[in-house]
Design a protein that fits this description.
The protein has 127 residues and is an all-alpha fold. It has 5 helices and no strands. The protein is 69% helix and 0% strand.
Length: 127
């Protein structure tokens, strides 16, 4: 049965799939904030990274607590370079709104790390 941790993994995993798919079918037009990322790999590669992270989270959502950790890690791992690129673009002056994008991605990621530390509540026993 899907618990609370699994529900969070499922929701975030689905959103990560959408982010990745969106970058493939209709890439964002203003890529100044992603300049650092794009110097390492093309946007298509990063998009597939989002999709893979989302799939890992969706698969781990059905695992028991303790074995679901890779899902949480995958969700965070793809966001960190994305967030860092936006922050670097703002610091270096290439994208004035980079701070806002970095802050939004950081705020989106914090609940993932909080839930990773949560314990699933015990299931009620049936009479």
């Amino acid at each position: 049965m899907l618990g609370r941790r699994g529900a969070i993994l499922s929701c975030y995993g689905f959103v990560w799939l959408l982010v990745g798919w969106g970058q493939i079918v209709q890439p964002q037009p203003d890529r100044r904030g992603l300049a650092l990322l794009l110097s390492w790999a093309p946007l298509q590669v990063w998009a597939w990274g989002w999709i893979v992270a989302g799939l890992i989270a969706l698969l781990c959502a059905w695992l028991p607590q303790g074995r679901d950790a890779p899902g949480f890690v995958a969700l965070v791992v793809i966001v960190v370079p994305w967030m860092t690129s936006y922050l670097a673009s703002w610091i270096l002056g290439g994208y004035p709104r980079g701070w806002a994008a970095a802050a939004v991605w950081a705020a989106i990621t914090v609940p993932i790390m909080v839930v990773l530390g949560w314990q699933e509540p015990p299931r009620s026993k049936r009479a």
